[in-house]
Specification:
single chain, 373 residues, alpha/beta, Aspartate Aminotransferase, domain 1, Aspartate Aminotransferase, domain 2, seven-stranded mixed β-sheet, 13 helices, 17% strand
C-alpha cells in the first residue's frame, strides 16, 4: 500500500471546515467498507443509480433523487436538465444551446465562482439586482422566452434579497423551475429537505462535506421529471455530464454515509463542537494582546452558519504578521494545521476536528503567536 508519506505528503489537522481544497471530510469505517465491497463486483451503473436514487428519496421523504460526482457537477447537470430535458437531440448539442431556452436568472449578489458550473452546460447567466438588494419587479422583468431556470445560492442569501419562497412563487408563476445550490448548508438536518419542501425544483448538496461520504459525490433532489433529466444528461450516457461519472464504489459509499448521518445524534454533535470551541478559548486566554471569542456566524458566505467558531485576534505587539501569514505558518508547521481567515484574525472551525485535536490546534496557534514576530 502506498501512503501519503511515501509521496512526501504530510496530513493536515482540519480546523478550517469541509473545503474541497483540503479533502472535504474523512469517511467513517462503515463507508470505507461499503466502498470496498462495492468494488469487488460488476453492476449495471444505470440500474444502480436509479435504485440508489429511489432509496435516498425514500429516506428523505422527497419525490426523487440522483447521486452525482459532487455539487459542482450537480449544478451543471441541473442546468442541462432545465435546458435539454430528456430530448436526445438537445442533449447531444450541449454546450451549444442555440435554439434552446438557455438563460438562468441569478441575483448579482449571489454570483460566485462556482456558477461557472452552470455555464459549462452552455447556460447564459442573466444578472439582476444590485450587490446588496433585489426588488420584486426586477425578477419579474427578467423572464423571457429564453429563461430556463432561476438559480438561488443559499450561501449568499441575506435579508436585502428576495427570500427563496418569493423567488419560487414568482418563477413558478412563469412556469420556470428553481435550482437551489445548498452544497454546504447542512447541518441542521432539516435543511436536507427544507428547500425542496418550500417548492424548489432541484436542490444540490455535496456528499463529501458534513455527510462524510466520498469527496467525489453530490446529491440532487427534487421533482421526478427534472431528476430524470439530470440522469439523462449524466454519465454513463454520452452527454455533457459524461466526464462527471460517479463510480459504483462512490455511490454505495454515499448511500452508507447518508444512512449514518441521518442516524446520528445531532444534539450531541453540537455539544461536542461547543466543547471544542470552549477548549480553544480556554487554552488561548490570558495571552497579552490576544483576544479569542466564541462566535456563531451568520454572514453571507459562511457555510454552514449553525456551527460555532472560535475567532482569534491579536495586536501588533503580539505579531505584525497578517492573519493570512499566520495561517500559512500554521500550515507549514508540525503538525500541519489548517484554519480559516477572517477580516482581522483566524477562524477556527471544529466541524471536522477529531476529539482531542482542538487542544493541538490551540497549542499550535499559541506557539505561532508567541514565537513569531
Amino acid at each position: 500500500m502506498v501512503t501519503y508519506a511515501d509521496l512526501g505528503i504530510r496530513p493536515v489537522i482540519n480546523a478550517w471546515g469541509t473545503l474541497t481544497v483540503i479533502g472535504g471530510s474523512t469517511m467513517p469505517s462503515e463507508v470505507l467498507a461499503a466502498m470496498t465491497e462495492a468494488g469487488r463486483h460488476y453492476v449495471s451503473i444505470p440500474e444502480l443509480l436509479e435504485a440508489a436514487g429511489e432509496y435516498v428519496a425514500k429516506r428523505l421523504g422527497v419525490e426523487a433523487a440522483f447521486i452525482c460526482c459532487g455539487a459542482a457537477a450537480g449544478m451543471t447537470l441541473a442546468a442541462a436538465a432545465c435546458m435539454a430535458g430528456t430530448n436526445p437531440a438537445h442533449r447531444a448539442q450541449l454546450p451549444n444551446t442555440q435554439g434552446l431556452r438557455n438563460e438562468i436568472i441569478m441575483f448579482r449578489a449571489m454570483r460566485l465562482r462556482f456558477d461557472q458550473a452552470f455555464r459549462v452546460a452552455g447556460a447564459k447567466i442573466v444578472e439582476i439586482g444590485w450587490p446588496d438588494t433585489v426588488e420584486h419587479w426586477e425578477l419579474e422583468a427578467a423572464f423571457s422566452p429564453q429563461t430556463a431556470a432561476v438559480a438561488y445560492i443559499v450561501e449568499s442569501a441575506h435579508p436585502g434579497l428576495l427570500p427563496l419562497e418569493t423567488v419560487i412563487q414568482i418563477a413558478h408563476a412563469h412556469d420556470v423551475p428553481v435550482i437551489v445550490d445548498a452544497a454546504a448548508e447542512i447541518p441542521p438536518l432539516e435543511n436536507l429537505w427544507h428547500y425542496t419542501r418550500l417548492g424548489a425544483d432541484l436542490t444540490i448538496y455535496s456528499g463529501g462535506k458534513d455527510i462524510r461520504g466520498p469527496q467525489s459525490t453530490g446529491l440532487i433532489i427534487g421533482c421526478q421529471d427534472l431528476i430524470k433529466a439530470c440522469a439523462f444528461n449524466s454519465a454513463p450516457n454520452h452527454s455533457i455530464g459524461r466526464g462527471m461519472k460517479v463510480g459504483k464504489e462512490e455511490i454505495m459509499g454515499f448511500v452508507t454515509a447518508l444512512d449514518l448521518w441521518l442516524a446520528q445524534d445531532f444534539e450531541e454533535e453540537m455539544q461536542r463542537w461547543e466543547a471544542q470551541v470552549a477548549t480553544i478559548i480556554e487554552r488561548l486566554s490570558g495571552i497579552a494582546g490576544v483576544t479569542v471569542r466564541r462566535v456563531l456566524p451568520s454572514d453571507p458566505g459562511i457555510q454552514p452558519v449553525w456551527i460555532p467558531r472560535a475567532y482569534v485576534n491579536w495586536t501588533a505587539e503580539v505579531t505584525r504578521r497578517s492573519p493570512q501569514e499566520v495561517k500559512q505558518l500554521l500550515l507549514a508547521g508540525e503538525p500541519r494545521v489548517a484554519v480559516g481567515v477572517g477580516a482581522t484574525g483566524l477562524v477556527v472551525n471544529p466541524q471536522m476536528l477529531e476529539r482531542g485535536q482542538e487542544k493541538i490546534v490551540a497549542d499550535c496557534i499559541r506557539k505561532v503567536l508567541l514565537y513569531v514576530s
